[in-house]
Structures are given as structure tokens and as C-alpha cells.
Design goal:
Largest sheet: 5 strands, antiparallel
Shape: globular
Oligomer: single chain
Distance between the termini: 16 Å
Structural class: alpha+beta
Strand order of the largest sheet: 2-3-14-9-11
Radius of gyration: 23 Å
């Protein structure tokens, strides 16, 4: 599957596979956040665009474009106030192309909370569109300066099937209609309660293990091995610079 990025500016933002690490997770006691596999997989589930400049911005609460003030000592592709209404706009600096039937999800960096401003998300039909898009953030509190460092991600992207969700047939069923699944869940729930209780006591297996690892390892509550495609880590490829026959660098 190809995901192609065509630079639209001379010095586009850095494009990189999203890393697993997060500073706030590193700061947790024993970095326990990394034990949550759904969290760490989500962290790395795509690619990031990083700000080419460090800057500060503040919104005074008004609807006009000039109600947001942006300051920076750097030179490069700067954010702007295209829409007003407390919306800060980044140019992504690329035209993205996906294969037929695939769109591009563009959203804020995953599990990177930022005070006083919230990333907005968009889905772009990049399999046919020659149009670029912008990444937008909405201030949530006036008169509170926010800051992006140079190299800090401002956008997270990944391809997605455009028709997949419309083919989903969502249902709610009584748990008793799936006795095997319910029994397995009950077994896990009871073991979880016992494990958490044992964590409070010294010289227990739970205290030595520190956390239950069945889901992380891909094991069922019965101790059976899960599916072969279980992932504990994503290894996404970086964008490769490709030179075409006419010698143009196609990014």
C-alpha cells in the first residue's frame, strides 16, 4: 500500500513515523503507562508532521482573525489565523495521495494533551483529490498563551478505508447469548480482582509481576495463545525520498 506525499513548499514540515514514547508517560512512576498496550499502539498508529518553527500564540476570545497573536523568533512555515473564531491553522506543506478507496485521517497528535487548545480532526479523500488540507486547532481558553516547540508534532495522519464504516452492522446482544465469551470474560474479571487485591500484600505473585500481562502477550484468560497477528509494537516505515526519471525529487 502506497502513501505518497508531494511537497508543496520549499521547506515542508518533517514527516516521521509516530513514536511510542510520550514525555508524560516517561514521568509516571515506573513509567507504568507503557504497560497499557492499547495506549502505546495508538501512540505509534500513523505518521506525524512536526512544526518547523517554535512559536507562541494567544487568543483574546474574539471572533476576528487578528484576535490571535502569533510570535516566533524562527523563520519557516508558520501557523496562521485563516478562519478566526479562535482557530489556529497549520499548513501541512504536502499534497497526500492514497490508493483507490482509501482516505486520510488527519487529527491531533495522539495522546499528547495540550492545555488551552484542542486539535480538530478531518477525513480527506486523498485517492482522487488534488487539493491540500490544513490542520486546525481550536483555542479552548482565552488569554492563555500556548507554545509549540520546533520539531513538536502538530498533526497525526494514517490511511483508512472509506467504505468500511458504512459496511459495519452494529448490534447489541445479551451477554448470555455468547456463553463461551461470557465465561472467558468472567474468568478474566475474577482473576483481575484477585490480582488487584494481591497487589496490596507483600510476597505475592501479583506483587512480583506488578501487572497482568495476558493481553499484552496475546494470551486468553484460559492461557491459550491469541491470533498470530497480535501486535505489541508497530514498526512503520519512514517516508522515502523517491527520485523520478526526470530527476525531480518526489518526496
Amino acid at each position: 500500500m502506497k502513501l505518497i506525499a508531494y511537497p508543496t513548499v520549499q521547506h515542508p514540515p518533517e514527516l516521521r513515523p509516530a513514536p511510542t514514547g510520550r514525555a508524560w508517560m516517561d514521568a509516571l512512576p515506573e513509567a507504568y503507562g507503557y504497560r497499557c498496550l492499547p495506549l502505546t499502539i495508538a501512540n505509534a498508529h500513523g505518521w506525524e508532521l512536526c512544526s518547523p518553527v517554535a512559536f507562541e500564540a494567544v487568543w483574546n476570545g474574539g471572533p476576528a482573525k487578528d484576535n490571535i497573536q502569533i510570535t516566533s523568533e524562527d523563520e519557516g512555515l508558520m501557523p496562521m489565523t485563516h478562519f478566526g473564531s479562535g482557530i489556529l491553522t497549520f499548513h501541512v506543506g504536502y499534497l497526500f495521495q492514497t490508493e483507490p478507496g482509501l482516505s486520510l485521517m488527519a487529527q491531533g497528535p495522539i495522546n499528547r494533551p495540550k492545555d488551552a487548545i484542542q486539535a480538530l480532526a478531518g477525513v480527506i479523500e486523498t485517492d482522487w483529490s488534488p487539493y491540500t488540507f490544513t490542520m486546525n486547532w481550536l483555542f479552548t481558553r482565552p488569554d492563555t498563551p500556548i507554545r509549540f516547540e520546533k520539531g513538536e508534532p502538530f498533526c497525526h495522519i494514517f490511511p483508512m478505508g472509506r467504505e468500511m464504516l458504512e459496511h459495519v452492522e452494529p448490534e447489541i446482544r445479551e451477554f448470555n447469548s455468547a456463553p463461551d465469551i461470557k465465561a472467558s470474560h468472567t474468568l478474566w474479571s475474577e482473576s483481575r480482582n484477585t490480582f488487584n487485591a494481591d497487589l496490596k500484600s507483600l510476597d505475592t505473585d501479583a506483587r512480583n509481576q506488578k501487572w497482568q500481562k495476558d493481553y499484552y502477550r496475546g494470551y486468553t484468560p484460559e492461557g491459550e495463545t491469541g491470533p498470530e497477528d497480535h501486535r505489541t509494537k508497530l514498526r512503520l516505515k519512514p517516508f522515502e525520498h523517491v527520485v523520478t526519471k526526470d530527476g525531480d525529487d518526489q518526496g
